[in-house]
Q: What sequence folds into this?
């Protein structure tokens, strides 16, 4: 089973102790976002977890506690953008994030630390030249600490549109996306990085950028030393290349408060949910009630070296 930690919130940054406690207990409970009374019990033992995939904007806290994951395989997807505090309300200074990125890379290896430069957005104050300048700077700082950069363009979901009220967001057409992405790709290559695209409708292959698998069975096989083949995750967007995984996060809990984030509806909901966080609870926030139905979560059956292994 591949465990996503997490597309829905930044667990390494804000809920690290809860996560490590769940690892020690051997399981976590996860509410179904579409049916909150349906609760999955997700096993987190070394025997059931093929790999943890960490999504974060600030790995500093978990970085200092990685010894508690010595029996597990894992890698990190770390987002570092070029934006300021007007769009990213509660992030540490970018230089601190970069230093944590570099320290993590030295500790676990550059292939297990992947840079996400996303979402790419344009406005009346943020143009292509802005991205070229800042991406060059970030690339130069991360050179030799990662071999891969993943990009994606802003998807204007209704919640993003609402949170970005007051910003004059400009949605690029396919031609503009190709030009911008192509120039960023040239810069990434200059600093020794491959560039891939996350869930983009536009075909960027003509500028050297192929679709990405953020939950990547090939990378996991390389990290673990075991061949692992899984099908595409049918619950993700059509253009998403990720293989199947189980996410243990919860929406409306990320305290970074980035205005373009699809995982938070508004700051009020986040505040209410985080106030219900209990580090000792098997749920990320709140407690199990009599109305909840707890069911074991099973993942797709992985294959190792051509032989199927019983589903966890």
A:
């Amino acid at each position: 089973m591949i465990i996503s930690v997490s597309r829905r919130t930044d667990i390494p940054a804000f809920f690290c102790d809860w996560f490590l406690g769940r690892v020690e207990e051997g399981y976590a409970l996860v509410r179904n976002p579409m049916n909150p009374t349906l609760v999955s019990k997700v096993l987190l033992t070394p025997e059931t977890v093929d790999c943890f995939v960490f999504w974060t904007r600030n790995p500093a806290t978990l970085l200092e506690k990685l010894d508690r994951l010595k029996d597990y395989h894992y890698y990190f997807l770390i987002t570092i953008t070029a934006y300021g505090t007007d769009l990213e309300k509660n992030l540490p200074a970018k230089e601190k994030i970069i230093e944590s990125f570099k320290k993590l890379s030295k500790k676990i290896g550059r292939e297990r630390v992947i840079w996400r430069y996303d979402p790419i957005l344009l406005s009346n104050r943020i143009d292509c030249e802005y991205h070229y300048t800042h991406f060059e700077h970030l690339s130069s700082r991360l050179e030799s600490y990662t071999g891969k950069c993943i990009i994606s363009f802003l998807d204007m979901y209704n919640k993003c549109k609402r949170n970005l009220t007051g910003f004059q967001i400009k949605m690029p057409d396919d031609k503009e996306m190709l030009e911008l992405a192509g120039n960023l790709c040239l810069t990434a290559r200059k600093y020794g990085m491959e560039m891939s695209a996350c869930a983009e409708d536009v075909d960027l292959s003509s500028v050297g950028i192929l679709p990405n698998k953020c939950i990547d069975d090939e990378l996991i096989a390389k990290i673990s030393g075991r061949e692992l083949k899984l099908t595409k995750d049918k619950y993700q967007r059509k253009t998403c290349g990720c293989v199947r995984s189980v996410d243990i996060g919860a929406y409306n809990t990320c305290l970074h408060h980035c205005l373009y984030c699809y995982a938070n509806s508004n700051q009020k909901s986040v505040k209410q949910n985080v106030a219900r966080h209990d580090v000792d609870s098997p749920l990320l926030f709140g407690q199990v009630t009599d109305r909840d139905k707890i069911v074991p979560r099973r993942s797709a059956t992985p294959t190792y070296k051509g032989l199927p292994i019983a589903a966890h």
